[in-house]
Specification:
Elements (H helix, E strand, L loop, with lengths): L6 E5 L2 E7 L6 E5 H7 L1 E5 L9 E2 L2 H34 L4 H27 L3 E2 L6 E2 L13 H22 L7 H31 L10 H22 L12 H23 L4
Antiparallel strand pairs: 1-2, 2-3, 3-4, 4-5, 6-7
């Protein structure tokens, strides 16, 4: 049961920020992304000034640093490889199998980044009752917490990377008809892009504690926005990659390739920025 002095913020059934008055005085502010990424809980004194933040224990901070580094490096390299795959496809400097291999390697890094992001949510330090502290539970490889927006966002992202894996594996198949290409390669691509967009929207709700907002001084907000722009570009690329049955060629190969390139660069930049969002 919530404490009567608590004030919850968020969207729909999700709570992304919680403010309460601990017994020690002042007020404590728990934010979903801040706790998950930095292991931090903000403290305000009675007069409303910002005090020294409370951090989780050393075990939690060590976990968060490692997970953040792995996820940041994975998305940076995954985005870079996707951009390389799109570039060589557009320029025609490599065969279809070589380009597919580059994409597949990038997809493995995206899988790693997606699962590591989920692990961050699963093992995030939690607030301890009405006190101004965060507690750390035992290490877990999995949990099921769909009522938490951070868990849901990262879970959808991870599933999206797995669906992209199906698309990337099927892209190695040769001699497919236009209908088979659309069913085996294009359809999983569209589903993966849609899941990325859903995940990005949830992440934006988490960062804004409600409807989309502008928080230009917030690093987490910039990471979410840059990644969501990448997801939009991936979707535009996927739409342009639909194979026309009558010609056997994509609707617009240039948009498909350059959309993938620009979207991948966004994710790579987001990965670099994410490296600095750590305890």
């Amino acid at each position: 049961m919530d404490h009567p002095d608590e004030r919850a913020e968020g969207a729909g059934p999700f709570t992304t920020r919680l403010t309460w008055r601990p017994a020690e005085g002042g007020s404590a502010v728990w934010e979903s992304r801040l706790a998950r990424k930095r292991g931090t809980l903000r403290i305000r004194a009675e007069e409303g000034t910002e005090g020294p933040p409370r951090t989780a224990d050393d075990t939690a901070l060590h976990r968060l640093r490692i997970l953040n580094t792995v996820a940041a490096v994975a998305f940076t390299l995954g985005g870079a490889l996707f951009a390389l795959g799109a570039a060589v496809t557009e320029i025609g400097s490599a065969g279809a199998t070589a380009a597919a291999s580059i994409y597949f390697a990038g997809g493995l890094f995206f899988n790693t980044g997606g699962y590591t992001s989920l692990l961050q949510a699963v093992n995030a330090p939690r607030r301890s009752g009405d006190t101004d502290s965060l507690v750390t539970g035992g290490w877990r490889w999995w949990s099921y917490e769909p009522t938490r927006i951070d868990w849901l966002s990262t879970f959808v992202l991870f599933v999206g990377t797995l669906v992209f894996g199906v698309n990337l594996l099927d892209s190695f198949l040769q001699g497919l008809s236009a209908q088979q290409v659309n069913r085996l390669v294009w359809a999983p691509d569209m589903v993966g892009c849609a899941l990325f967009l859903i995940s990005g929207h949830l992440a934006l709700v988490e960062a804004c504690h409600g409807p989309p907002c502008l928080h230009a001084r917030n690093l987490g907000w910039w990471i979410v926005v840059v990644d969501q722009v990448g997801s939009v570009l991936f979707m535009a690329s996927a739409l342009a990659a639909f194979t026309r049955p009558e010609t056997g060629s994509p609707l617009n190969a240039d948009i498909a390739n350059w959309g993938t390139f620009a979207g991948a660069v966004c994710f790579s930049v987001g990965g670099v920025l994410q490296y600095f969002e750590r305890p």
